[in-house]
Design goal:
Blueprint (H helix, E strand, L loop, with lengths): L1 H25 L12 H12 L5 E8 L3 E8 L5 H13 L14 E4 L2 H9 L2 E6 L5 E5 L28 H11 L5 E8 L5 E8 L5 H12 L9 H8 L11 E3 L2 H9 L3 E5 L5 E4 L17 H31 L6 H12 L1 H8 L13
Antiparallel strand pairs: 1-2, 2-4, 3-5, 4-5, 6-7, 7-9, 8-10, 9-10
Helix pairs in contact: 10-11
C-alpha cells in the first residue's frame, strides 16, 4: 500500500507540473526555448543537448531535504574549487541566488535555453533551483593553456621576448598591459555558422582610420565558413584580392610588434585558438622591418634597412641584367667572364669547344 500511495503522489505532482507548463504555453508566457524550473526535466534536457560525455557533469542536491537543485558544467573548462566553495556551499546553507546572490564576481540570470547551453559550453556553471524561475550562469572558466613563451618564428636577440599563446583572453590581457589606455578598443565578433569562434578586432580609436576599421569589421562579419580553425582563413577574407601573390595582411606572434603596428594606425585581428595575430594593411616596407629595428639606435636601424633594400634590388635586377648581357648583348661581357661562366655551367668540354673558336691573342692566359 505504501508503494502505491507514493506512486499516486508522484503522478499527482507530475500532473500538476504538466498542467502548469501547458497553461504557461497557452497564455504565451513560455515557449519551448524558455527555462522551466523542473529539475527532472532540466536534467534530462541538459543530457539530451550536451550528450553523455564524461566531461559533462550534472550534480543534483537537495536543500533541507525538500528543495531540489542542480549544477551543470564541463569538467575540463571550469575551476571546481570555485563551484564547491562559492556556489554549492552557500546554496546548501540556504542562500537564494535571486535574493542573497552568490560570492562570485560574474553571475547572470537567464531563462533562454540557447543562452544556457552556450554558457555551459563556454565554461560557465549553470545553477538551477526548484521554484526559481530562472537559471544562474556563473563564470567559473579555467581554460588549460600553455605558459607565455619566447617567440619561435620571429626570434630576436634584443627587445621583449614575449609571444602570444592560443587563449584569446590571455592575448587581450597582453595587449592591454602594453597599451594601458582607454583608446585601445576590442570589438568581439562571433564567426562560424555551425561552430562559432570568437574573433576580436583591436585598434586605437584615436589613431586608426575609421574607414579602415569599418572595412575590417564588415569583412569579418561577412565570413560564412562553418568554423574558423586558424587565422589564415580570416586573412583570406580580409585581403582585397585573395588570390594575389602580394599579401596585404601579415601575421605575427610577437606582442611588441603588434603593439607597434597598432600605434601606427593599423588594425589587428585576434582569433581564439591561434597564437598568430593578423594586422594590416601591410605594405612592402613592413616586410623589411623586424622587431629589432625598434630596439636599436635610429642610425643602426636605418643602415641595416638600407642594406636590406640594396639586397632586394640586387636580387631583383641583377639576374635580369646578367641575362640581358649574356644572351642579348654578349659583346658587352669580357671574354674571360664568358669563359668562366661557360665552365661553371657546362663543364670543361664546352670551354674547349669555345676556346677553339677564339683566337689565342684574345685570351692568351686562358690557353689549356
Amino acid at each position: 500500500m505504501d508503494a502505491w500511495r507514493a506512486l499516486s503522489e508522484d503522478l499527482q505532482r507530475l500532473q500538476q507540473r504538466l498542467t502548469g507548463f501547458i497553461a504557461s504555453l497557452t497564455d504565451g508566457s513560455t515557449t519551448l526555448t524558455t527555462y522551466v524550473p523542473d529539475m527532472d526535466a532540466v536534467a534530462a534536457r541538459l543530457m539530451a543537448r550536451l550528450g553523455t560525455s564524461p566531461d559533462v557533469i550534472v550534480r543534483r542536491f537537495r536543500i533541507g531535504g525538500t528543495r531540489a537543485g542542480l549544477v551543470c558544467y564541463l569538467d575540463n573548462l571550469v575551476d571546481v574549487s570555485i563551484i564547491d566553495r562559492d556556489i554549492l556551499r552557500p546554496v546548501l546553507q540556504g542562500a537564494d541566488p535571486a535574493q542573497d546572490g552568490l560570492p562570485v564576481s560574474h553571475a547572470a540570470a537567464t531563462q533562454d535555453w540557447e543562452t544556457l547551453i552556450t554558457g555551459i559550453l563556454a565554461g560557465h556553471t549553470a545553477v538551477c533551483l526548484e521554484d526559481l524561475p530562472e537559471v544562474w550562469m556563473v563564470d567559473t572558466v579555467k581554460v588549460p593553456q600553455r605558459s607565455i613563451e619566447r617567440p619561435q618564428t620571429e626570434m630576436a636577440i634584443r627587445g621583449p621576448q614575449e609571444a602570444f599563446n592560443e587563449v584569446l583572453a590571455t592575448q587581450l590581457s597582453q595587449l592591454r598591459r602594453r597599451l594601458a589606455t582607454p583608446h585601445l578598443v576590442f570589438d568581439q565578433l562571433t564567426v562560424g555558422t555551425r561552430y562559432p569562434v570568437a574573433v576580436v578586432i583591436a585598434y586605437l580609436d584615436d589613431v586608426v582610420n575609421p574607414a579602415l576599421r569599418d572595412a575590417v569589421r564588415a569583412r569579418v562579419t561577412r565570413i560564412r565558413a562553418e568554423t574558423i580553425v586558424n587565422s589564415t582563413l580570416v586573412a583570406s577574407y580580409l585581403r582585397d584580392h585573395p588570390g594575389t601573390l602580394f599579401p596585404t595582411v601579415r601575421n605575427s606572434e610577437r606582442v611588441d610588434l603588434v603593439v607597434w603596428q597598432l600605434l601606427s594606425g593599423k588594425v589587428a585581428v585576434l582569433v581564439d585558438g591561434d597564437p598568430f595575430v593578423l594586422w594590416g594593411p601591410a605594405t612592402l616596407c613592413d616586410f623589411y622591418r623586424t622587431s629589432e629595428d625598434y630596439t636599436s639606435a635610429w642610425y643602426d636601424a636605418s643602415f641595416i634597412r638600407a642594406i636590406r633594400w640594396l639586397a632586394w634590388a640586387f636580387g631583383v635586377y641583377l639576374p635580369a641584367l646578367y641575362i640581358a648581357l649574356t644572351e642579348v648583348n654578349p659583346d658587352l661581357v669580357p671574354p674571360p667572364l664568358v669563359i668562366l661562366t661557360c665552365i661553371a655551367s657546362n663543364g670543361i668540354g664546352e670551354f674547349q669547344r669555345l676556346n677553339s673558336r677564339i683566337s689565342a691573342s684574345e685570351i692568351p692566359h686562358y690557353q689549356l
